[in-house]
Amino acid sequence: MIMAKNVSFLDSVNRYFDAAAPHTGLDEGLLKQIKVCNGVYQIHFPVMVDGKVQVIEAYRAQHSNHRSPTKGGIRYSNHVNQDEVVALATLMSYKCAIVDVPFGGAKGGVKINPWEYSEADLEKITRRYTTELIRHKFIGPAIDVPAPDYGTGSREMAWIYDTYRAFYPDDINAAGCVTGKPVNQNGVRGRTEATGRGVFYGIREACNNKELMDKLGLEMGIEGKTMVIQGLGNVGSYTATISQDEGEVKIVGVSEVEGAIYNADGIDIHALLRHRAHHGSILSYPDARIYGKDKRRAVMEFECDILVPAALENQIDANNAANVRAKIIAEAANGPVTADGAAILAERGVVVIPDIYLNAGGVTVSYFEWLKNLSHMRFGRLEKRFDERAYRRIVDQIEATTGKVISDRDRELIVRGADEIDLVRSGLEETMITGFQQVYKMYTDNAEIKDLRTAAFALAISKISSDYIALGIWP
């Protein structure tokens, strides 16, 4: 039995690295270079709030510069500290490598509770933080590209973009300094849903793997499987709605800060989201078993096929891993399972789809947005009408050849050219499918690798090492 102990998020990430490293066959010195964080910038800056000066603590970590620019979100949270930011930057390096997104890993954090500040104060904090990053060369379309994370969104990214543009008014690629921007501020359609949609594609691909499903005693396919969601933020809500609508999954349990609910017959996630928006809580949702705030972590022990931790790190550990009843844990959040918890789950045969693969949808679509910003053209602009005309000629020829008339509804479905969001979703789907296949191949090709996380880390380490060697960074 593994005893519970306090293990930091960064410690867990490094333990996962250490478990995977021997399976790569790489030089010990090269492994050390890949593992270590290249640089951390700690900032303290003053901001006037309600007539008083507050000194704000903030960070930006660049874990690896094997690819440029580096990439990673900015989170606003009272829990921000250097170890957390370094751990998240480290995961970003591995995440980008797994899904073949050509960025190095980075992450930022501002140590505030954003819900305690007015919009005007948040704007001042965001702009001052951005100014500090600019002064020290920690932001730029070819240097380091932030994105939203916990406690931030498109609004904050628009402020970052505007601040950067004020410093560099002649930079034609200034919009590429940050992603996750509003669509009307050079953002890309589909970015808001990207991480949750990527989680859905990753779970679906795992459920379509016959060998994996046979191992778990489950039928192939995602349809009809039961799912529990921890956290109804951006990632959790989109994972839940897309899984229900497109995957025909039955959501049986949900938790939020105020507590958790369970209904074995299913919960309509759209109705639940409307209910919470109106009443401010999920606990008054009808026909569900209620678990109060002090028992909200009971969600980890709800009976289901798929458990989706979509909140913060360290939610499943040595204290509760033995009580998890899900057969699949889909890590939508960063680091929701500690290294000790993962060891217990592995002993019990629970399949964990690891965060460094599964929640890569956000950085994938951020990559698409960055490409859009550098090309200065929305996706689909060149080919949409051409494709529609070509498809219409094909349909006309089919009708002429067969003598059968295709209905107007079917005709419109067939001839419609791809819009930007169609192309973004298609690119994301391709990325998540290919990523899972590569991780699973690493898992099956090496008999000594016992779980998908170790396989994912080994894959990421191998890809990053290739860059170091090819670029001559490593002697």
Can I get a quick summary?
This protein has 475 residues and is an alpha/beta fold. The chain has helices spanning 9-20, 28-35, 82-98, 119-135, 154-167, 194-207, 210-216, 234-247, 269-279, 339-347, 355-358, 361-375, 384-402, 408-415, 420-445, 452-470; strands spanning 39-49, 52-62, 70-76, 104-110, 144-148, 226-230, 250-256, 259-262, 289-291, 306-309, 328-330, 351-353.
Description:
The chain has 16 helices and twelve strands. The chain has helices at 9-20, 28-35, 82-98, 119-135, 154-167, 194-207, 210-216, 234-247, 269-279, 339-347, 355-358, 361-375, 384-402, 408-415, 420-445, 452-470; strands at 39-49, 52-62, 70-76, 104-110, 144-148, 226-230, 250-256, 259-262, 289-291, 306-309, 328-330, 351-353. It is an alpha/beta fold and 475 residues long. The chain has three domains: 37-186, Leucine Dehydrogenase, chain A, domain 1 (Rossmann fold, 3-Layer(aba) Sandwich); 194-358, NAD(P)-binding Rossmann-like Domain (Rossmann fold, 3-Layer(aba) Sandwich); 380-426, no CATH class.
